[in-house]
Amino acid sequence: MIDFIKRLLGSPQTAPRRAPTRMDEPMLSFGAAGDRFVRIASLDFFGQYRRSPDGRWLLAWRDGNDAGTHGGHRSSGPGRFYLFEGDRLAAQGRAERPNDGQVADNGNFLINDWLFGDGLKGVFRAYRSDGTIIVERSFTANLLNSGIADDGGIAVCQTCNAPGPDGSLLAIFDLASGREIADWLPESGWAESYAFPAAGRIRLRYHDGQAYDYAIDGQFLDRDRWIDAQARSDNVHVLHNLLRGAALPPMMGATIMASVDAILAKPEFDPTERPVALKVRGLCQEALGNLASALSDYEEAIALDAKIGLKRKAAEVRRRLA
Question: Strand, coil or helix: what is 33?
Answer without folding.
Answer: coil
